[in-house]
Amino acid sequence: MTNEQEERDPKQFRDYSMNLKSNRLASFQDWPFDANCNCTPEKMAEAGFYHCPTEQEPDLVRCYMCYKELDGWEPHDEPREEHKSHSSGCAFLSVKKSETDLTIEEYFRLEGQRQQNRLMKIVQAKCKEFRSQAEKTRDEMEQLA
Ligand SMILES: [Zn+2]
Questions:
Q1: How far apart are CA 66 and CA 86, in angstroms?
Q2: Per-residue pLDDT averaged across 114-138, rounded?
Q3: DSSP helix/strand/coil, 121
Q4: Which of 27, 76, 140, 145 is the most buried (most CB within 10 A)?
């Protein structure tokens, strides 16, 4: 996720409310798979994902906790298993109870982890942007020589 994407797509701000399964489920209105598939909106939301489609990636989903993005879903894919195999360290996957059974302490521990993950994504995007700008500037300087 880059800052540019955030500026382009105000829907990014939905991230904040996606810690609730009901909000994640509501994001799957244009989900391209039907109820006969394994990757139903219910299972996707249950696995921590919400739908954030782009023109090129109509089945793009993002985990509200680790911000891992996955697309290219197959009808037989098991959302929780896919989540595990692509982001095994995600704190959401280590929670063994439903969100309504979390204690306040557990809830805030998860929120802290989520904000930490979010900051890391922003920092990584900024570093990438900086490196690319530095490369461009170096090229321009070499042209002057
Ligand atoms: Zn995750």
A1: 11
A2: 94
A3: helix
A4: 27
Distance 38 CA to ligand 1 centre (A): 19
The dihedral through the CA atoms of 31, 33, 35, 37 has a sign that is: negative
pTM: 0.80
Domains in the chain, number: 1
- SS3 per-residue string spanning 43-112: HHHHCCEEECCCCCCCCCEEECCCCCEECCCCCCCCHHHHHHHHCCCCHHHHCCCCHHHCCHHHHHHHHH
Residue-range definition of the domain harbouring residue 102: 3-144
| 93 Cα: distance to centroid of ligand 1 (angstroms) | 7
Q: So what's the pLDDT on residue 52? A: 93
- Strands 49-51 and 61-63 turn out to be antiparallel
pLDDT score recorded for residue 93: 94
- Please tell me the distance between residue 30's alpha carbon and the centre of ligand 1 in angstroms: 22
